[in-house]
Write a structure and sequence with these properties.
The complex is a heterodimer of chains A (about 375) and B (about 140).
Chain A (H helix, E strand, L loop, with lengths): L4 H10 L4 E3 L2 H9 L1 H7 L2 E9 L4 E5 L11 E4 L2 E3 L7 E5 L3 E2 L3 E5 H9 L4 E6 L10 E6 L7 E8 L6 E3 L6 E3 L2 E3 L6 E3 L22 E4 L2 E8 L22 E6 L8 E6 L3 E13 L3 H7 L7 E6 L9 E6 H5 L2 E4 L2 E7 L3 H16 L29
Parallel strand pairs in A: 1-2, 12-21, 15-24
Antiparallel strand pairs in A: 2-20, 3-6, 3-11, 4-5, 4-9, 7-8, 9-10, 11-18, 12-15, 13-14, 16-17, 16-20, 17-18, 19-20, 21-22, 23-24
Chain B lengths: L1 E9 L8 H9 L2 E8 L6 E9 L1 H13 L3 E4 L3 E4 L19 E3 L6 E3 L9 H5 L5 E4 L1
Antiparallel strand pairs in B: 1-3, 1-4, 2-3, 5-8, 6-7
Helix pairs in contact in B: 1-2
The chains are: A alpha+beta (about 375), B alpha+beta (about 140).
Chain lengths: ~375, ~140
């Protein structure tokens, strides 16, 4: 191995580290070659800023007097889950308001808390000898509560499909508005800047990796839900459709709405744009081969969302280079393309992380454990009870 | 004499019909086509300034509806709150005249209002709700 994590961290502490973004490294490798880059560059920063439904926050409210063991809890009329300890709750991004419907949800509660806004807390309970109170209504801000941390079961998808709609009507999906008769195509990945597309076999991104999460320091907590490393891969190792995922954790109180934003997909519901930045150490030449990948070499699969089934028809493969050109060809027809994930924000985050590392404010953490390369993503079969 | 700004949406099977010709000839209306996006086999949209006798305008609108053309009064303005936009690009998916597009160097959203045909599809498609219609 050319460099170790310890050596790179020593350089960071001394202000001697050389960091570039996953976008800048592409031309650098083309110009100077793999060997030179492996020797001279220490860290490559990757980032993404896309809608990630599997996001939420754990909160501890503190105890009222007399105390309550909350059985049902609402934050700004959005239900949160409190089937854990008395004043612990989890608010999920896609949970909808009981008074405002699709336009306000858990994502907005999280955003309001991060902004420092006051949020209405309401809870009911059945009352116990140790927790006699049966209801409570008050207001909280992030400064009043105890712990508040994001725990996102699935973020940073390693690639994602392109969505089109072959049906005769416009459909409204989590992939945006899809026009009839394949009238448009949407995609959602930062491509060449995306974390797991720059480390296809999870060599440096694993459990314990320190990350930039929505403006705060965070960590990879576990493999993400629906982690699917066995997805079909191109010869250079990059999956051709959605594959690996990450479960992420970070302190909500340190986050900024510049890097996390509540969203609402028309007739779908609420979700949240999450900004994630992950540094990749250039340990050796193999890592250079991974991070040098560009949009033209990363492929994904076109899926027909006009068929409302689990297994939707696949209409071919396309590169991010083609998608970014604004038009692709499907079945001989020119189809305009549009992203849902912000490349401008991903680039901003990659640059912010680069600065943090250069300024000695962000050290790299070697994964404590690697993510699985064998896990399969199982479907849910509908069976009769007892069979 | 009254004047109205209308947005017409044509189903693909009506795109080849000379509908504006009938508005002029059969209903005596003065028509100014402000914007048009009409392609064969696709939904077509047209923004019209219509001037004429009020009753004749209403008859013209009834004729359009009988031809399966959707008729809406046009919005006066569409605004983009740039400070709150995250440049995701979701709105560009539905903007067929490409008034909303991502700059392919900065990847920031640009709004060229001259190309807008006030179809309002972007308003619903913006996940952050930063595009608004003003009547």
């Amino acid at each position: 191995m050319l460099k170790t994590y310890q050596e790179i961290n020593e350089k960071i502490k001394k202000g001697q580290v050389v960091v570039v973004t996953a976008e800048e490294i592409i031309d650098l490798v083309a110009e100077k070659g793999t060997q030179w880059v492996a020797r001279e560059i220490d860290v490559v920063t990757t980032a993404t800023f896309g809608p990630m439904c599997s996001t939420g926050a754990f909160i501890n409210f503190g105890h009222a007097d007399p105390p309550i063991k909350m059985a049902k809890v609402w934050l700004n009329d959005v239900p949160a889950y409190t089937g854990i300890a008395a004043v612990d709750a989890y608010i999920g991004a896609t949970e909808l308001s009981e008074t405002q419907g699709l336009s306000y949800g858990g994502a907005h509660v999280i955003e309001d808390l991060i902004m420092g806004k006051s949020v209405k807390l309401k809870a009911v309970a059945y009352g116990t000898d140790c927790y006699p109170r049966k209801d409570i209504e008050t207001h909280i801000t992030k400064d009043d509560i105890n712990q508040a941390y994001l725990y996102n079961p699935r973020n940073s998808y390693q690639n994602y499909c392109v969505a089109v709609n072959s049906s005769d009507r416009t459909i409204f999906t989590y992939m945006g508005t899809l026009l009839p008769k394949i009238g448009n195509a949407t995609y959602s990945s930062a491509g060449q800047l995306s974390p797991l597309l720059n480390d296809p076999y999870y060599r440096t991104i694993g459990i314990g990796t320190r990350i930039f999460l929505a403006g705060a320091i965070g960590y990879v907590a576990w493999e993400g839900t629906q982690h699917n490393p066995v997805q079909e891969r191109a010869p250079h190792g990059i999956p051709m459709s959605s594959a690996g995922t990450l479960a992420l954790i970070g302190d909500l109180k340190q986050m900024s709405t510049n890097y996390i934003r509540a969203a609402n997909f028309y007739r779908y519901g609420t979700t949240i744009y999450v900004g994630v930045g992950i540094p990749i150490p250039i340990l050796d030449e193999e890592m250079v081969e991974f991070v040098k990948v560009s949009d033209a070499e990363i492929y994904t699969t076109i899926i027909d969302y006009g068929v409302p089934r689990r297994s939707r028809p696949m209409l071919g493969k396309v590169s991010y280079g083609e998608l970014r050109s604004g038009e692709i060809t499907i079945k001989g027809k020119n189809v305009p393309t549009a992203p849902l994930s912000s490349y401008a924000k991903a680039r901003e985050i990659a640059n912010v992380l680069k600065s943090l590392i250069r300024e000695g404010k962000f050290l790299l953490q070697e994964p404590i454990e690697r993510l699985s390369l064998e896990r399969t993503f199982k479907p849910l079969e509908i069976s009769r009870e007892g069979i | 004499m009254v004047r109205k700004k209308l947005v017409l949406t044509f189903p693909p099977e009506r795109v080849d019909k000379p509908i504006t010709y009938h508005l002029v000839k059969d209903f005596d209306l003065v028509i100014n086509i402000l914007r048009a996006e009409i392609h064969e086999e696709e939904v077509g949209r047209m923004v019209l300034d219509v001037e004429g006798d009020e009753e004749r305008i209403n008859q013209g609108i009834a004729y359009l509806k009988s031809q399966d053309v959707k008729v809406q009064e046009a919005a006066r303005d569409i605004t983009l709150d740039e400070a709150n936009c995250v440049d995701c690009g979701a709105c560009t998916a539905v903007c067929l005249p490409k008034a909303l597009r991502l700059n392919n160097e900065t990847w920031k959203l640009e709004f060229d209002k001259e190309k807008c045909i006030f179809c309002e599809l972007c308003v619903k498609s913006c996940p952050l709700g930063v595009i608004e219609i003003k009547f």
